[in-house]
Amino acid sequence: MTATIFQPIAARPAPVDTEGPVAWVKANLLADWKTTLATLIVGGVLLWLVPQILNWAVFKAAWLPNYEACRAPGVGACWGVIAEKYRVIIFGRYPFEEQWRPLIATVLLTGLLVASCMRMFWKTWLPLLWLVVLAAFFTLMYGNTLGLTQVDTDRWGGLPLTILLASLSLVMSFPIALLVALGRRSSLPAIRSFCTIYVELIRGVPLISVLFMASFMFPLFMPQGFKIDVLIRVLVGITLFAAAYSAEVIRGGLQAIPKGQVEAAATLGLSYWQTQRKIVLPQALAMVVPGIMNNFISTFKDTSLVTIVSLYELTGAMSLALNSDSNWRPFTIEGYIFIALIYFVFCFSMSRYSHWVEKQVNKSKLR
Amino acid sequence: MNSKNPPKKNNWSWRSQAFRGLIYQVIAILAIGGFVWFLAHNTLLNMRVRGIQSGFDFLKQAAGFDIGESLYPFDSAQPYWQAFLVGVTNTLRVAVLGIILATVLGTLLGVGRFSRNALVRGLCLVYVEFFRNIPVLLQLLMWYVILTEVLPAATDAWVLGPFFLSKGGLNYPIPVWSTGQLWAASGLIPGLALAWVYRRWAKRQFEASGQVRSMVWMPMVIVVAASLLGWLLGGAPTALNRPFKGDFSIENGGALTPEFLAVLLGLTLYTASFIAEVVRGGIQSVPLGQSEAGAALGLSRHQEMRLVMLPQALRVIIPPLTNQYLNLTKNSSLAVAIGYPDVVSIANTALNQTGRAVECISLVMLVYLSTSLGTAVLMNWYNSRSAIKER
């Protein structure tokens, strides 16, 4: 009998790191030869491109409002154009000395928009606040009261106009969209077909043709001697356009409500409008908030089209600012980048908000 | 809701739901009809007072303006309807090319969001967020400025092989038309037929024996081989009409104007970011279990993607993808801002010359409506083919 001698088996290798930066790089950049190759190619291109862009945009850029310095050889971006022209770009043709008015008006409206996005402000007095702020906005912008000089709407422009067009068309299109969405699901054939025709007609044509219609054809539609401001006409055009798109989003929400809900309401003896108001819409609207938000983002971007019918909102104001001044005209790209950033900040934050709302809405479905 | 009892009373009282519905509809029809009549009446009255002529007879008059680019020769002596036709072809040209390019780029970006490489993932995300959140009109204007001001003049254009890129646009070589190309084209048609027959045969084989045959590469090889054969039979013509630098501009070859390039680039890059999101959503909508089940059956990653994931993802992808195609077509109307002669721009010129706003704008709307409805019908047909076949 030989005594069995204890033979320890070799220790297992230490577990591979799955956390920490080294492990992350291994898993995400150098996992196998394909990934490594992609890292090398993409990383190489970035290493070549990013320094050039930074050089142009930051290190070699001219920051002072001096167009002589911008034209010197070897100078990159000319941000001086923004320093020189930012007031025209942001406020358009609004009289220079009076530009504190659109500034306050824009801050008010933007503040209200942000507040409307927060849950703690979702109270019954919010619509009233909207009315008050809109009244203040128009008073400030138009003037002619309280010792303010009158500024006609054709001098309005820039960012205030963009925000006004986007938010007003959203607010006004919502009730229309709601009615049209209900109408498309109505059991009455005439009403259903009217709503369907409206939605399909609007969704089939580009916004620009609606705007052309608002600016060229609308005066023909009205009775003799009836004049209506071009801003209002364009606003009506954008509203009708946005309403058709929102109606489709809302209809999607209505369709997602199980039929049992409506039948249960009928059993309780609720009328059609009671059913919609108390049972269907609260459930449907909660579902469509992200979709409505996306529509709002595209309406915000679409306001740039009113440039084509000569209303100088942000895009138009920027062209106006640079095209009239031959000293600064070569630096249009910098101007475009500036307003692109403004649009980006607005749209990106709205899309983040839309993601947040989506999560909030889905919370109730998680158990 | 119960159809048997009580017996339906057809009473003409306010308490009958059917009667109330009828009244509401009559009111709606009267209101809308009255509104339309009001608008039409005002329009006619206004037109008479202002002395505006109406009617579509102007379409037969000479247009009197030149068009920067068209697929077929057009001069100012030709009538308006031909000018409109040029506009429509220009719109369709940029829309079709844009749809193809945006689909390819968008799909790559959407799939790239699932890459195992963090750099690729991040780059795709940055691209999507960046291009999605800037108005397309602004992007078009930016591309136009870049193409017409940052690029060198035609006399010292950038040369990339046989391609020239300058303020004058992109010049590229085109093959000289001869009978050889005709042979190649005639080889293409039997090649396509053969490829179709092969695919049907391969599918039947797959259903009978479960043997997976190449469904993409083989048909492509067949088509290419058949047209190559035709080309060889036609004497293998290789003559190209190459562009070269002249004294003032680049001569010969085919050319794309900076306007066209700006519209195409802007629309493609913008729409691709939306298509990427659509594709990402579609792939995410397929449950992970499907991919795992495919792996359990011993499918390779590629087969699993093509046979299991993609057919299911497509169902989710197609309806929003159709929307994006329609959006791209409608957004091509923004070409008017940078002077690409699409249908809106031509209608705008015609409107300014003749003053017939109603006719010109309704023509534009008609063009877009029919394009939209046509695309919708086509995509619905494709959608019903790829939808779940339920018993």
Describe the structure.
The complex is a heterodimer of chains A (367) and B (391). Chain A is mainly α and 367 residues long. Chain A is built from 14 helices and no strands. Chain A has helices at 20-28, 33-59, 67-71, 80-91, 100-116, 126-142, 158-184, 189-204, 207-221, 230-255, 259-267, 272-302, 314-323, 332-363. In chain A, α11 packs antiparallel against α12 (272-302). The radius of gyration of chain A is 29 Å and the shape is flat. Chain B is built from 11 helices and 8 strands. In chain B, the strands form 3 sheets. A 4-stranded antiparallel β-sheet of chain B has the order 1-2-3-8. Chain B has a two-stranded antiparallel sheet with strand order 4-5. The longest helix of chain B is centred in the N-terminal third of the chain and has 34 residues, at 17-50. Chain B is globular and about 75 Å long. The two termini of chain B are 28 Å apart. The model of chain B has no long low-confidence stretch (mean pLDDT 82). Classes of the chains: A mainly alpha (367), B mainly alpha (391). At the A-B interface, α2, α8, α9, α12 and α14 of A face α1, α3, α4, α9 and α10 of B.
